[in-house]
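Supplementary Note 3. Input sequence used for the single-chain structure prediction.
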Amino acid sequence: MAGKRISQLDVKTPASSDVIGVADPSTGIAGKSTTAQVLVAGFNQSSVISTGSSIAYTPTTINISVATNDLAVGTVGLVFLNVTAAVGLTGISGSNTSGKIIHIVNTGTNALSVKNEDVGSIAANRIRTASGGNLNMQTGHMLICVYDGTLSRWRVWMIS
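The predicted structure, written as discrete structure tokens, is reproduced below.
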């Protein structure tokens, strides 16, 4: 498959040594990867593949200095959150699609209080923690959330 454009790909299942094209459907930015193992092959829908290389996100930096309801992250998967005052986060908005994973890194100088089921955000943007309580996200820590389409909530997967 080497040398083909994304639009020229067919339904051939790649071998482990084949180079396959991958593209972000929202930006059209394309790249290539060598598969180690193909779990699901289908170019007309999202596919899960195991690659022989790493995956990198382009981060977006967002500055906050006041309590924030419905943090607008758009379609990104990695947010560097510059927290410049001790404030709270009640929800996340943007691409609330079941299974979407977002990584939020506190790159600021203050801790962030991640609020559980806070009414400051609209219901579909609220965050649900495993403990049912608020979480304290220190400088340098990461929050990983996955969107649960059945509950219409961002579930905290991990905070480090």
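The longest strand covers residues 30-38. Residues 6-51 form one domain.
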